Amino acid sequence: MLGAFFTPELTTTKITPILNLNFLSSLIFIVFFVFINYVNSSKKFSLSLEKQKDIPKIITFAIPIILVFAIYFTFQMEISIYWDQLFAESMIKIKRASYTFTYFNYDLIRFKSIWIINYSLFFISALTLVNIKKIRNKQFELINNVLIVSVLFVFLSAGLYVLSELRDSYLHQIFSNYYPKQALNLWIRYISFLFVSFLLYASYQVVKQNTLQRIYKMAFELLLHTTILWILSSELINWMDIAHSDQSYKLGLSILWGLYSLFLIVVGIWKNNRPMRIGAITLFGLTLIKLFFYDISHLNTIAKTIVFVSLGVLLLIISFLYNKYKHLITDDFSES
To answer: Hey, how many other C-beta atoms are within 10 angstroms of the C-beta on 163?
Structure first.
């Protein structure tokens, strides 16, 4: 990391974000590769490469990938340097008796991680829209779809975990005498959700471009509802922690998943969407498995009664809806 060469005592070692030699060098590299990509894709300059069969294909595939990676890491490096330097500046040394203790503000490293993830969400979203509007390359679209799923999984797993660490740091006020905790520790998650929404919007545009391929619609719906449910579950845990609730969040998660299953059933019947109904029933089944094999051992009698009654009522509603609107339900995938 370039930020590791920064020494707080030596102001000359500090790197100014954007206005530094590293960024300028990367920018020059990008400009040259943009030009190379233009020349390679232009029909005016393709005659000299026509005699060689394999090389043009490799070049055509490799140059755009190198260009995309160069653009991504140019700005990602700036984000890393900025937060690494703030982290280095946060160092304090406290003498106690004959010992010297060194402390750092580790929230800054967490902010660095979440902003890199936010940037990645934005970058892949913008890349997706550029490919749809300008490039229109089907091979690149497949790679881009893999990147969408990958970066979204990183946010839902690592990103939400980092956000929970920022929340815990704020609530527990760890080392607050040296590093005052701000409400941004809590609200940064909603900034991240905006970036996730932008990525889902870009994914939806991919689906609109492939209206004749049912697999795109099914994959998008799976991605969308998995993301929404994952974020709602995280929000439930988040606000229960903020409220210092003593109730087990396992109870709340089971009820939330049951309610979301009901929501998917309603939408699946309304839209005559068979895969969505199957997904809803699968989610409800997983909720019941979680309830019987995991929740029961951690819940008291009152909590068990609440969750059993709640899920029982939801199951009755689902059964009622299936019986009432069974004439609307068909097995025709083409209509879903």
So the answer is: 24
Task: Indicate the number of domains in the chain.
Answer: 3
DSSP annotation string for 23-68: HHHHHHHHHHHHHHHHHHH-GGG-GGGTT-SHHHHHHHHHHHHHHH
Residue 282 has φ and ψ, to the nearest 5°, of: -60, -45
Nearest to 106 by CA among 45, 179, 43, 54: 179
For position 248, what pLDDT does the model report?
Answer: 60
**For residues 82 and 250, what is the distance between their CA atoms, to the nearest angstrom?**
39
Look at the block and give the residue holding tokens 């004439």.
Answer: 327
Give domain status of residue 101, yes or no. Answer: no
**Secondary structure (3-state) at 266:** helix
Asked if residue 128 is part of any domain, the answer here is: yes
Same domain, yes or no, for 195 and 76? no
Task: Indicate the range of 19-23, 65-69, 114-118 predicted with least confidence.
Answer: 19-23
Question: What is the span of the domain harbouring residue 193?
Answer: 106-246
State pLDDT tens for residues 195-254. Answer: 999 999 999 998 888 766 788 888 999 999 999 999 999 999 999 988 887 666 778 888
Alpha helices in the chain (DSSP H): 21-41, 54-89, 107-130, 138-154, 160-172, 184-209, 214-242, 249-270, 274-290, 301-324
The pLDDT value given to residue 216: 84
Tokens of 89: 């500046």
